Amino acid sequence: MMSSIAIPAILDRLAHVGVDGLPYPNSCQDHDELELCRSWHYRIECREGRARLEFDHDQLVPSWIVAETPAVAWEALRTEGYLEIGSTNECALRRARQGASAGTLVFAEAQTAGRGRLGRQWFAPPRGGLCFSLIVCPLTSSSRWPLLTHVASAALAFAIRELESEDMIPVPLDLELRWPNDVLISGKKAAGILLETVGTGSSLSAAVVGVGVNVAPGSLPPELQGSAISLSEAAGVRVPRRRLLVRFLYHFQLGYELFARGEHQAILERWKRFSRMWSDTPVWIMEGERTRPGVTAGLTDEGALRVRGADGVEEVILAGDVSIRRSQSGER
Ligand code: BTN
Fold first, then answer.
1. 49 Cα to the center of ligand 1, angstroms
2. What are the strands of the beta sheet with 104-111, ordered from one edge?
3. DSSP assigned state of 32
4. What is the pTM of this model?
5. Ligand 1 center to 115 CA (angstroms)
6. Average confidence (pLDDT) over 245-259
7. Phi/psi of residue 219, each to 5°?
8. Residue with the nearest Cα to atom 11 of ligand 1?
9. Ligand 1 pocket test: which of 84, 89, 183 has the largest number of ligand atoms within 8 Å of its C-beta?
10. Which member of 44, 91, 213, 306 has the lowest number of beta carbons within 10 Å of its beta carbon?
11. Does residue 96 lie in a domain region?
12. What is the mean pLDDT of residues 219-231?
């Protein structure tokens, strides 16, 4: 198991006492925990013998996340927060196997072994963005579980639009969902979703919805800068991460209610509001080493993509990457 650094308990104590703050230094352990939080850029002011946590909408403080997230689809949100972890998905899968309940959220300031789709890595440096994994335990047929990625990507899109309406994002972003679950801003990837499950075959007991969002400017390595973007870079201001997270959790629950009731078309309609490329769009289909042209022809009830090949034959793509074909040779 990879090493991890849990968010120190003193952070929630500071959040609870509010403007009064805590006596500083109270004990050696408090001192060490405070300094650890400060070294991870939690905004803790130490003045006149007291330590106070400054309130803003960015800091990932567990008790603030719980307090600000309305519970719609599960009784209560439970959080497990880390400063650094290998992968929040890995941790959430372990917790789900140990019986953690639906609505358990594992989040981290940084991941050292973040996973992406199709065996890729997900880059998540300290405070670069959001990386979190949510455990859900659907009772519906597992053949429909892939729709959870549509629930999640649409929830991110709704959350971004909400931050725009609150002026936390001062310009309307050129936002699009790319099948199956990428959030693009101005044609570049700003967020991705990795759905993993617990169990085998048709007897799955839980799913982990892993979400990674590039938020901070300068959080992307040079090799990704042509194809990826951070929300703050696109918005021209620092986008507050906790506000985005709690609004995501709200919209995810709304979508999850539809999912639990079997209203799959409604989920796809929510997703389609943010996507143009699922119908009548020339695309490149990339599966492993193979890339071929096609034209999109709608979605199946499970959210898979229908594509018509050059020979006119229609097929269903379950996994893989799809990008818009702008010309014979050019692609996004
Ligand atoms: C993709 O676009 O390839 C999916 C990326 C998913 C990354 C997130 S970050 C939080 C969670 N933990 C992981 O290890 N991966 C997901």
1. 41
2. 5-6, 78-85, 104-111, 129-136, 203-214, 188-200, 182-185, 175-178
3. H
4. 0.94
5. 5
6. 97
7. -90, 0
8. 210
9. 89
10. 306
11. yes
12. 88
- Give a yes or no: residue 201 inside a domain: yes
- Average pLDDT on 144-170 reads 97
| 50-53 β-sheet, strand order | 22-23, 50-53, 44-47
* 37-92 pLDDT, tens digit each: 999 999 999 998 999 999 999 999 999 999 999 989 887 899 999 999 999 999 99
Last-in-domain residue among 53, 71, 88: 53
List the single range of 103-107, 180-184, 247-251, 316-320 with lowest mean pLDDT.
Answer: 316-320
CB 250 within 8 A of CB 137: no
39 alpha carbon – ligand 1 mean position (Å) = 25
Structure tokens at 60: 């990932």
For residue 124, the CA-to-ligand 1 centroid distance in Å is 9
| CA 212 to centroid of ligand 1, rounded, Å | 5
Site residues for ligand 1, CB cut-off 6 Å: 87-89, 111, 114-117, 120, 122, 124, 131-133, 182, 192-194, 210-212
Same-domain pairing of 200 and 305: no
Tokens of 312: 């006119």
Same structural domain, 234 and 292: no
Query: Closest ligand 1 atom to the C-alpha of 92?
Result: 12
For 98, the domain range is 62-272
Sheet holding 305-309, edge to edge: 314-317, 305-309, 290-299, 279-287, 321-324
Best probe residue, ligand 1, of 109, 111, 122, 219 (max atoms within 8 Å of C-beta): 122
Question: In the structure, what pLDDT confidence band is assigned to residue 332 with cuts at 50, 70 and 90?
Answer: very low
Would you say residue 331 lies in a domain? no
Residue 279 CA to ligand 1 centre (angstroms): 27
